[in-house]
Design a protein that fits this description.
Length: 104
């Protein structure tokens, strides 16, 4: 709880909140190392690795949501394929007849 104090004090100020977050992480790592009787490197790994895993998971989840959204929007924006009209199907034959070529 004591490590959260810098974030609580600076968190409400735009752009300065980043300093509070960094100082919070530093104090969290130092406090964890002291309380659990471990090295600072081990404590840093215990704090940073879960944060990185959450970040990677959020990026992957965002990619999944983006892909699904674009797929759904792609279906609705393309619409139903236009059916060829009878005129479009007959016009090549009419041109051949007009050119004097018989249909076979």
């Amino acid at each position: 709880m004591y490590a959260s104090t810098p974030f609580f004090l600076l968190g409400w100020i735009p752009y300065i909140a980043a300093i509070g977050v960094i100082w919070y992480l530093v104090l969290l790592i130092l406090g964890l190392a002291e309380m659990q009787d471990m090295s600072v490197g081990e404590a840093a790994m215990a704090v940073v690795v879960p944060l990185l895993l959450l970040l990677i998971g959020a990026i992957i989840w965002g990619g999944v949501i983006y892909t699904l959204t674009m797929g759904i929007l792609g279906i609705f924006t393309k619409g139903i394929p236009k059916k060829e009209s009878n005129q479009d199907m007959i016009s090549p034959h009419i041109e051949k007849i007009q050119a004097g070529i018989t249909l076979s």
